[in-house]
Design brief:
Blueprint (H helix, E strand, L loop, with lengths): L1 H17 L5 E17 L7 E16 L2 E14 L9 E15 L6 E17 L8 E18 L7 E16 L19 H4 L2 H5 L3 E4 L4 E14 L2 E14 L5 E16 L1
Antiparallel strand pairs: 1-2, 1-11, 2-3, 3-4, 4-5, 5-6, 6-7, 7-8, 7-9, 9-10, 10-11
Length: 268
């Protein structure tokens, strides 16, 4: 996972240094509401769903032949299983992603781009009414491939722009807890983990497994509509959809949706 983080930072720095054409740099801050659907067999056979809130902070650079974005997303909500209200759980998600896309047809009004992203994420689920093993989680990092389309309107709608982005991971480093305890399986030796001698953070980060698309499936899409109301200011409405599944003897699957309004500040 450390190597992927290093690759993310190094790749972004090298791309920024190599590109010399005029660029449009933007800062964005957004918030909205979301909807989560969760089924985690390591904790419960039931499906949970419910509303929550989402916050995003990002930095974008757009050039005629490329597009880059660094985006931090945090989502939290309370979800229920539809059977017992007191048996609900609190769900949290955080993700830091770097996206890079190369534009295929820079002169067109509808520009298509190919590229990908590197992400670091964490999902936590807290069962408040449970005394034993109340926490379930997954975390890791991934490298994804994807495509992006951006359309600039003309005439009376020239202040509007629409975009769509799709990404699917090809390789990921995934950390998951063992059944019945809040520690990954690699922590355990004969069913016991001595955290006082071995520590916690180090063994957790090294306990993950490298997976390809058959061991970690995820699809992420973003559909946005941006309106420029001033020379250096825009407002953006985005719909984000994500679904991921980690197959195992006790698999977990989760769907996240969010509708976000963002304020975009252009930096020249």
């Amino acid at each position: 996972m450390r190597s992927i983080i290093f690759l993310l930072v190094l790749g972004y720095s090298s791309v920024m240094a190599q590109q010399t054409t005029r660029s449009d740099k933007q800062l964005l801050l957004g918030g909205g509401f979301g909807y989560m659907t969760i089924k985690d067999l390591s904790s419960s056979p039931l499906r949970y769903s419910g509303m929550g809130g989402t916050v995003q902070l990002g930095y974008e650079t757009s050039r005629p032949k490329s597009f880059q974005r660094v985006l931090l997303t945090v989502q939290a909500g309370g979800v229920q299983n539809g059977i017992r209200r007191q048996s609900g759980l609190s769900a949290y998600k955080a993700q830091l992603a770097y996206h890079h896309y190369w534009v295929i047809n820079p002169q067109a009004r509808t520009r298509w781009a190919l590229g990908g992203s590197a992400e670091v994420w964490g999902n936590a689920r807290l069962f408040g009414a449970r005394e034993n093993n109340p926490v379930s989680y997954d975390a890791g990092s991934a490298i994804s491939i994807g495509t992006r389309a951006n359309h600039s309107f003309s005439g009376r709608f020239s202040r509007l722009a629409a975009s769509f982005q799709l990404s699917i991971p090809v390789v990921a480093y995934v950390i998951r807890p063992a059944y019945g305890v809040p520690y990954p399986e690699a922590f355990l030796k004969n069913g016991v983990f001595n955290h006082q001698d071995e520590g916690l953070v180090g063994p957790m980060l090294t306990s993950g497994k490298l997976k390809t698309i058959d061991g970690f499936f995820r699809t992420q899409t973003t559909t946005s509509l941006t309106y420029s109301f001033a020379k250096a200011k825009s407002i953006r409405l985005s719909y984000n959809w994500e679904y991921y599944h980690i197959p195992s003897t006790l698999p977990v699957s989760q769907g996240n949706q969010s509708l976000i309004v963002s304020f975009v500040k252009h930096i020249h």
